[in-house]
Amino acid sequence: MIGGGGKTYSTRGFQRVSLFSCVILLSLSSAVNAQDNNYESAYTLTRVDSKGENTITKFEWDETQNRLVPAYYRVEIKELISDSYDKVYENYTETPVIIPEGSSAAIADTLFKNNSNGAVYNASNNGGTITELNADFVGNAIIKNNLTADWNFAEGGAVNSYPNIDNINGNFIGNYIEASSDSQRIDAEGGAFYGNASNIRGHFVNNYIKLTSNTGSLYGEGGAIRFSMADNANIVGDFIGNFVELESASEGQVVAYGGAVWGSSVTVTGDFINNHVLAINHSESKGSTRAEAGALYGGGNITGNFIGNYAKSITNSTYASAHAGALEGGGIIKGDFIGNFAEAISENDSAGVYGGAVYITSGSNTNNITGNFFNNYAKAEGATTNVYARGGAIYTTWLSNSHSMSGLFIGNHVESSYASYGGAVDTNIRDGGTLNIEADFINNYAEADMYAKGGAISIEGQKLQKPIQNMSKYSIVKQEVVNQDGSVYKTLYSVCDASGKQISTAEFEQAVEANKVAGLTDNGTSSYSITKEEYDYILQIYGEDYIKSVAYMENPKDIFTITITAPEQLDINTVREQHAHLVIKNSNLTGNYTEAPDAKGGALYSEDATVKILTDNGKTTYISGNYAKIGDTIDENAIYLDKGELIFDVQNGSSIVLNDNVNGINYSTYIIGDKDSTFVLNNSIKNAEQVNLIDTNLVMTKENWLNGNDLYLHSGTVNLINNTLGTMAPEILGISGDTNILVDVDLANETMDKISANDYAAHNGNLIVSGMNLLSDSKGDKTEIFFAEQGLKDNVLNGTGELPDKYQTAYTPIYKYKVNYDNRDDGGYFVFDRFGGGNSSESYNPSVLSTPVATQAGGQSVVNETVRFAFQHMDMFSQMPLSARIAYINKNRYAISEGVPQYNSELEYLDKGYWVKPFTSFEKINLNHGPDVDAITYGTLVGFDGKFRELKHGWYNVQSIYGGYTGSQMSYSGVDTSFNGGIAGLTETFYKGNFFTALTATAGGGAGTSSTMYGNEDYTMLMGGIGSKSGYNFEFKDGKYILQPIMFMNYSFVNTFDYTNAAGVRIKSDPLHTFQLNPQMKFIANLQNGWQPYASVGVVWNVLNVSKVRANEVILPKMSVDPYVEYGVGLQRNWKDRFTGFAQAMVRNGGRNGVALTFGFRWAIGKGDDL
Questions:
Q1: % of the chain residues with pLDDT over 70
Q2: Per-residue pLDDT, 85
Q3: Looking at the structure, do residues 65 and 123 belong to the same domain, yes or no?
């Protein structure tokens, strides 16, 4: 059984946990528990305050700090041995249980303890059968010292069973093999178990093999378990503190495999903690050492965490080798690898270390690794140039088929006295094989005394496929045939491709004919020479045709005319279908580095491989903070390619941000994706044979990031907008398909971003200038700026949008310009004409006009509408016949002749009352010297009317107060503005006979937001106004019909406080003062049952309504609202329940065009004191 009550056997060996006491641990045993619900670990974790003996460090998320913080845990072994058993074998000097040939035995509820010649033996080829093995094994041993045979063997410190055992249930603690010799070879296998088993369920703690010899060769395999032939064994249990340690001074080998388990293919559910293999050879002449698989050798289907395991090899003489600090093999692996290492030291010769945590040996099978790799490393020290450390976390042999890795790689490294590769991963991939990685690589590094390549990842590929694009540069090498006297008999010229490989004359001529020669250079020096005798011998043996097949008799530059032609437009699928040896998907590469006299690829080093960096599904990939350090010089080099292809692929709204540079030799780069995705280039791509852009958006924070490369634009967009000016200077520019470009323009200094190549291909597409960022305003009305030189000017199109015909539109924060591309003999020019003239808003960027528009169409409208609807008492009371008004005032009840409305007692309730009046208008406001504005004004006023007060000379007065919410929405030329505020006021209304007049004063304020092409900007507005409304009733038929001329006058004040808009322009506004005149004529009908329909018509003049606004001291157009006509109808009715309802619709034509709507209701509250 796994676990159990009772005492604990000695676990002192577990103190080795301190070797990894400072590692990172995120989810110890989480993978194991998910795999086997019946699994119970062999240890517990107890939270402690600080690091110490047998502690590990977890990093846990702190909600208050919003980051990972360290947490410390002490690891303690559980009590694994029971207090009682049915049977106990203890302190036997001979093997207590031997299974005779042909027999069978069942072993149940048994303890084997401290037996010195093993516990169970069933090793014969024709041995017996163990039908059941349910037992615990503690301290059993095979001890063989002072061996004298030439070749000695020791197997199974506790159990040795060559016949297969179906099921083993039990814990193995402290079992071991110890052996020694003078000069004889010793092979030891299985410190606790040797043989074959189908299923093992139990924990293995502190089992080991320890061999020593003066000069003999030593081989040790499986500190806990060594399977002899069994494949696909299933193990459930933890392996803690198991090891193989070998020490000799042999001229032969000292080899240690599998600190815990050696098996060809196993299924394991459990954690491997602090297991190791150690091989030491003191020979001064030619002895070698090998240490492999600090925890598990064999691979298979592995679920568990590997923590603090190591493989270490030390020799004085020849080769020291260490592989796989934790796991060697491959398969399906799920778990975290933390603090494992592999180390090899050769004092006087060479050393090689492969895989600080994992060494993948099965390249033809599929390997899938899911887990986190923290602080693993590979370290090699030696005395020659053959000292290598490869793969601080993972090393793979040559892979074929498809393989995957996912998780996190943090703090892994390689270091070597000569060469280091792959601080986290070093891999080799055959043509047709692919390694798919979806993992973040953070703070991994490679350090070496000579070469360091790939701070995070190093890859070597076998590349047999043709490149995506066959454009290539060639060089001419001059070769001289020399006479005996040193004179030149003949000069030959050979052609080399970009990699320096000599090609045949036929191959070169085919490339010339197919327009695949991107450049042909003459190095001008003699590469080498041959004697006349050597030349004649070659001529005699191979013939003149052979010489002509490998060299030219005259310089090819004098034979061939090289016309650089842009390659055919690449379809994005062509690039995506190119086989990639390495695919890095949705992964960040940050803070990785290499350091050596020759350091390359702070994050990634690739040799002869195709590498794809893919970002998908709206994610962002950052390649940042990586570097290569040579001495005191730091190069922000993230990726280095020695031959091959680099593909950046951004899809489905994703981004790749490259903050570090890409460098290499004989490589090509492809930036591909879709129109919703972005590749941000914050550093340079250097020395590429070619850089290709297909379909996506390339954002360049500096124009020179691609200088010196051949640049081929197939499709997509190049965005050079960065608020500074610069020149893209590719070696060759070829436009294979229509491609957009966005540029900065400095009108004041008459310059702009541009492209200037050393040479141009014969283009098959156009460069479309589809956007301009104007950094300054022109000094005059017209500015001409040079953009394109010969070789490019005929393939430039203006595409900045908006205007028809050949003119387009561009904006500065203040002005608007017509833009025209003028293709002249000496080059292509952009011509900028400022729109309009005088004070027209057409000359200005709509974004800068938001304040005058908001003041006129928003603030002024809010004040005017509020004042207009503030005369609630007058609008209602003045529509009554004079007799009804007098009767109400005098509180007398009398009858009027038939056909004339009778005084109604409900009129008493006109005295005091509350009222609510929502209002809105939908208009197009044609601002004078401004844009046409679609405006919606709205609000709700709530008021209270006091009772009538009698004054002298027949005058009566009513006082009203009101307040409410006001707002507006405006839209023009791509600018949207909203305003929300509040307003309050006081109204005094006076009546005498058929004459009435009123005064109101109102004040308020609010805040607004404008959305422009530069973003959102907020403003604050203060408003006020004084209004007067007067009229007279002409009654017909005793007041049944009333004709009411009215004069409305209003003064309004609107002040927008100064602010800086979203484009960085300082907006300063003078207060807007407006005087409005509005004569009206109203016809009212007083019908039965309290119905009062009416019609109204009027004209509105705005006087002194010109706003003055400055943008960076530039006076913007002084806008105003032209006069307009307003007409419409309304309806009012009184009900007996003291309620009055009303509604009105007015149409406006002229300076304002639209409709204004209002409705409302009033509650009368009867007699009482005045307000």
A1: 90
A2: 93
A3: yes
Task: Please spell the DSSP secondary structure of 30-72, one letter per residue.
Answer: HHHHHH-TT---SEEEEEESS--TTEEEEEEEETTTTEEEEEE
Three-state DSSP at 851 gives: helix
The tens digit of pLDDT for each residue in 387-407 reads 999 999 999 999 999 999 999
Query: Residue 433 has which token pair?
Result: 């094989």
pLDDT tens string 915-924: 898 989 999 9
What is the identity of the amino acid at 766?
A: N
Neighbours of 391 (CB within 10 A): 35
| Residue 596, pLDDT above cutoff 50 | yes
Does 1007 fall in a domain?
A: yes
DSSP for residue 762: B
- C-alpha dihedral sign at 726, 727, 730, 733: positive
* Same domain (yes/no): 1139, 1094: yes
Q: Please check whether residue 930 is in contact with residue 853, taking contact to mean a CB–CB distance below 8 angstroms.
A: yes
Sign of CA dihedral 941, 946, 947, 950: negative
DSSP-assigned letters across all residues of 89-118? EES-SS-SEE--TT-EEEEEEEEEES-BBB
Q: Are residues 824 and 911 in the same domain?
A: no
pLDDT band at 6, cuts 50/70/90?
Answer: very low
Is residue 1159 one of the residues assigned to a domain? yes
Residue 347 lies in a domain: no
Asked if the model's pLDDT at residue 35 lies above 70, the reply is: no
Domain match, 827 and 855 both: no
- Of the three residues 334, 353, 388, the one that is the final residue of a domain is 334
DSSP state of 565: B
Q: 791-816: buried (b, 16+ CB within 10 Å) or exposed (e) per residue? A: bbbebbebbbeeeeeebbebbbbbbb
Q: Is the domain of 306 the same as that of 271?
A: yes
What digits encode the pLDDT tens for the residues 1115-1157? 888 888 889 999 999 998 877 657 788 899 999 999 899 999 9
Summarised one tens digit per residue, pLDDT across range 459-472 is 999 877 777 876 77
Decide if 695 is inside a domain.
no
Q: Strands 1114-1115 and 1109-1111: what pairing?
A: antiparallel
1095 and 1141 part of one domain: yes
- Tell whether 161 and 310 lie within a shared domain: yes
Domain span at 151: 1-334
Q: Which of 559, 577, 605 is the last residue of a domain?
A: 559
d(CA 1080, CA 1098): 4
* Cβ neighbours for 280, distance < 8 A, ≥ 6 positions apart: 246, 247, 248, 254, 289, 313, 314, 315
Diameter over CA atoms, the chain: 148
817 lies in the same domain as 922: no
Q: pLDDT digits over 674-690, tens only?
A: 999 999 999 999 999 99
Q: How confident is the model at residue 904 (pLDDT cuts 50, 70, 90)?
A: very low
Q: How far apart (Å, rounded) are the C-alpha atoms in residues 109 and 896?
A: 120
> How many domains does the structure of the chain reveal?
4
Q: State the Cα angle at 233 between 226 and 332, rounded to 5°.
A: 105
Distance of alpha carbon 692 from alpha carbon 730, whole angstroms: 12
What pTM value is reported for the model?
0.80
